[in-house]
């Protein structure tokens, strides 16, 4: 079965405000509260695509209850470790540009972190876990590494989406998928990524380092897929961008849903781009209908080996 792990979930409080004035009182034109956190977003999109999965992570307080209730109402499976503090609220401000104000979230105790590791210890080689997002306070710097050690010992397939430098070290453990965006790839290698050629060059380094599949997402400019056989470039479908929060998570859900359904990697990559863009064109995460509506709007090209030398 597929599992997602969100160490630091959030309520995403989406506020549309035109011409925000810093240092003054601003009133929203429109607002919406949604369950958030990267793994939770992956779970919700998987669920919409009919792929059974369970969301794991730490959750607490009224804000945590809001997320659990929302997931239950959507029919999404979850089994969170209850913590003492309150799950954070992340404000996503939509003006001309998108500004994110993310909270810190609760401090996790040793007992709570052990409870989570015990859940992961129950997974087997028939399972895949998708590790997404920032770590909560209180957890050791190497918490993801501890989880990955369990995955290696128990042959649990894993996907990791973190923007921290530890990703380079984690590659040795052969993650099934990594999906940096342009800025994350640039930070990882301390190099500017100014073109698709740059993105392919550094994306290939992730594959050579051990990642089985790499997707580099480039926002409105599309995405790149790399495995040990092929490299593909996809153009993003065009549409009215409403809220891009969670579009990267939707891509991960799309690729994993495709693989679960037995599609080829190329088809799974196409579904991944459909999911990312359908979410960018929606207020909340993409619905199945919105995803399917983009079926004929993703153009993918194979990159020949020598094209990028
Ligand atoms: N402006 C856009 N137009 C069309 N598609 C978009 C746009 N922005 C994002 N997307 C889609 O979403 C995918 C992921 O976008 P992006 O590279 O911004 O990921 P991300 O930074 O990980 O996202 P987030 O952190 O907001 O979840 C893109 O590859 C594309 O398919
Ligand atoms: O602070 P993190 O864990 O890196 O990111 C958290 C977050 O910004 O990521 C999701 C979008 O990808 C949002 O739902 C959530 O608010």
Automatic annotation (TrEMBL):
Instruction: Decide whether keyword Kinase is in the record.
Output: yes
Which ranges carry the Carbohydrate kinase PfkB domain?
A: 6-283
Q: Example GO biological process term?
A: D-tagatose 6-phosphate catabolic process
Q: What is its EC number?
A: 2.7.1.144
Q: Where is the signal peptide?
A: none
Q: Mind listing the UniProt keywords for this protein, alphabetically?
A: ATP-binding, Kinase, Lactose metabolism, Nucleotide-binding, Transferase
Q: Which PROSITE patterns match?
A: PFKB_KINASES_1, PFKB_KINASES_2
| Gene Ontology cellular component annotations, sorted alphabetically | cytosol
The record's GO molecular-function terms, alphabetically, read:
1-phosphofructokinase activity; ATP binding; tagatose-6-phosphate kinase activity
Q: Which reaction does it catalyse?
A: beta-D-fructose 1-phosphate + ATP = beta-D-fructose 1,6-bisphosphate + ADP + H(+); D-tagatofuranose 6-phosphate + ATP = D-tagatofuranose 1,6-bisphosphate + ADP + H(+)
Against Gene3D superfamilies, the record matches this protein to:
3.40.1190.20
Q: In which pathway does it act?
A: Carbohydrate metabolism; D-tagatose 6-phosphate degradation; D-glyceraldehyde 3-phosphate and glycerone phosphate from D-tagatose 6-phosphate: step 1/2
What superkingdom does the record give? Bacteria
Family designation: Belongs to the carbohydrate kinase PfkB family. LacC subfamily.
What this chain does, per the entry, is described as:
Catalyzes the ATP-dependent phosphorylation of fructose-l-phosphate to fructose-l,6-bisphosphate.
Name assigned to this protein = Tagatose-6-phosphate kinase
């Amino acid at each position: 079965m597929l599992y997602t792990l969100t160490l630091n979930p959030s309520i995403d409080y989406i506020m549309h405000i035109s011409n925000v004035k810093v240092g003054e009182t601003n009133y929203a034109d429109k607002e919406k509260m949604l369950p958030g956190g990267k793994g939770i977003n992956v779970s919700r999109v998987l669920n919409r695509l009919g792929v059974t999965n369970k969301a794991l992570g730490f959750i607490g307080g009224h804000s945590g209850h809001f997320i659990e209730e929302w997931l239950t109402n959507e029919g999404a499976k979850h089994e969170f470790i209850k913590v003492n503090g309150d799950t954070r609220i992340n404000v996503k401000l939509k003006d001309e540009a998108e500004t994110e104000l993310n909270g810190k979230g609760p401090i996790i105790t040793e007992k709570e972190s052990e409870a989570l590791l015990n859940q992961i210890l129950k997974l087997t080689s028939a399972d895949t876990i998708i590790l997404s997002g920032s770590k909560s306070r209180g957890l050791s710097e190497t918490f993801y590494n501890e989880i990955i050690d369990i995955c290696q010992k128990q042959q649990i397939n894993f996907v990791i989406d973190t923007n921290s430098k530890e990703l380079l070290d984690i590659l040795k453990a052969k993650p099934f998928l990594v999906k940096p965006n342009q800025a994350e790839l640039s930070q990882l290698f301390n190099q500017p990524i100014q073109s698709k050629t740059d993105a392919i060059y550094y994306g290939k380094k992730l594959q050579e380092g051990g990642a089985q599949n790499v997707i580099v997402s480039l926002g409105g400019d599309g995405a790149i897929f790399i495995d040990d056989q092929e490299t593909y470039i996809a153009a993003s479908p065009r549409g009215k961008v409403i809220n891009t929060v969670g579009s990267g998570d939707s891509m991960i859900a799309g690729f994993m849903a495709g693989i679960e359904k037995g599609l080829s990697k190329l088809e799974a990559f196409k579904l991944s781009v459909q999911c990312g863009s359908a979410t960018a064109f929606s207020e909340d995460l993409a619905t199945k209908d919105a995803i399917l509506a983009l079926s004929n709007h993703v153009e993918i090209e194979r990159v020949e080996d020598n094209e990028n030398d």
